[in-house]
Design a protein that fits this description.
Layout lengths: L4 E6 L7 H14 L4 E6 L1 H4 L6 H17 L8 E4 L5 H10 L4 H5 L2 H9 L6 H16 L4 E3 L5 H18 L7 E3 L32 H10 L15 H14 L3 H7 L5 H27 L2 H30 L5
Parallel strand pairs: 1-2, 2-3, 4-5
This protein binds tryptophanyl-5'AMP (TYM).
The site of tryptophanyl-5'AMP has 25 residues, from strand 1, helix 1 and helix 7.
Length: 328
């Protein structure tokens, strides 16, 4: 029996944070053996916010290297750059015609990003979830491992697929989301009401962050005045730190509570800093090695695009046929 398929992607829009790592990448690695995995560097998505062209190129390469450094083995799965497979943009156009303005207006990420980039509320930012739906649906995806913040985008993807299938018969497989138990919502270390984000370096730890700086940020992270380590309703700052520790070490909230019974925040933060450092060091070393081999990275993403395109084209042709285009 063939394996079920996974698709997921990350935008090359800034330095990856441990939020991206714990919410997405770390879970991907765990799913690679069980599923057929296709992972994309979604560069088409990235330009919904202005990017410096040279930096964007560099970040795409760096993201491929980070995927591999985190343990995504390119011999076991597919890694490619979204803009190398034209079917993404092509299917997105078609799906745009099956998506309602009202649905897109409800997207919280659109509301949030348009308030942060008030000078550039472009149509791409608005239709972004449709491109994401195209990404997923092109590969007849079974499972989409993402962080909690993408839940709404997955729901609209399913709505679009269902609508299309209702009109034309079964064209798209209905994808399911996969959101991890720990680490699906890593919050800003300085402001635990906000998610940790590439665009807020003060409250976030980058995957490639210098260890000394990561330790400093953990030491300075917000806590509360209760003084004990326990995951409890309403303790946003502590719950966040406990989740990070749990996601990194694989320990449950109960195990963490037991580990730190009778100990204070100083001990907990020290253990957290050590755990984060131990997790990031080998990734950073591997990343450096990979960035010194751009030809290898090129080989990976070219091979990835060839395979991805072969699946994507097949779905695209099915869609073209259904909507009534003469196949070229
Ligand atoms: P992006 O690039 O913002 O984030 C990449 C992945 O990281 C997760 N993530 C987090 N998880 C936990 N805590 C956080 N603070 C945190 N911040 C980010 C995200 O949930 C995501 O899984 N639209 C997507 C990219 C995308 C995509 C796709 C994903 C485009 N097409 C198709 C899956 C399938 C995005 O902007 O992710």
């Amino acid at each position: 029996m063939s394996k079920k398929r996974i698709f997921s992607g990350i935008q090359p829009s800034g330095a990856l944070t441990i939020g991206n790592y714990l919410g997405a990448l770390k879970n991907w690695v765990q799913l690679v053996d069980e599923y057929e995995c296709i992972f994309s560097v979604v560069d088409l998505h990235a330009i919904t916010v202005r990017q410096d062209p040279e930096e964007l190129k560099q970040r795409c390469m760096a993201l491929i290297a980070q995927y591999i450094a985190c343990g995504i083995d390119p011999d076991k799965c597919t890694i490619f750059i979204q803009s190398h497979v034209p079917a993404h943009a092509e299917l997105a156009w078609i799906l745009n015609c099956y998506t309602y303005m009202g649905e897109l207006e409800r997207m919280t990420q659109f509301k949030d990003k348009s308030s942060r980039h008030a000078d550039n509320i472009n149509a791409g930012l608005f239709t972004y979830p449709v491109l994401m739906a195209a990404d997923i649906l092109l590969y007849q995806t079974d499972l989409v491992p993402v962080g909690h913040d993408q839940k709404q985008h997955l729901e609209i993807c399913r709505d679009i697929a269902e609508r299309f299938n209702r009109i034309y018969g079964p064209v798209f497989k209905m994808p399911e989301g996969y959101i991890g138990k720990m680490g699906a919502r890593v919050m800003d270390l300085q402001n635990p009401e906000k998610k940790m984000s590439k665009s807020e370096p003060q409250g976030s730890i980058a995957l490639l962050e210098d260890p000394a700086s990561a330790v400093k940020k953990i030491k300075r992270a917000q806590t509360d005045s209760l003084g004990y380590v326990k995951y409890e309703e309403g303790r946003l700052a502590m719950n966040n730190l406990i989740s990070i520790y749990g996601a990194v070490t694989g320990k449950t909230a109960d195990e963490i509570e037991t580990e730190f019974t009778g100990k204070g925040y100083g001990d907990f933060k020290k253990a957290l800093a050590e755990a984060v450092q131990a997790e990031l060091s080998p990734i950073q070393a591997k990343y450096k090695e990979l960035m010194a081999s751009p030809h290898y990275l090129q080989e990976v993403y070219r091979k990835g695009a060839r395979y991805a395109a072969s699946i994507a084209e097949e779905t695209k042709r099915k869609v073209y046929e259904k909507v009534g285009y003469i196949l070229g």
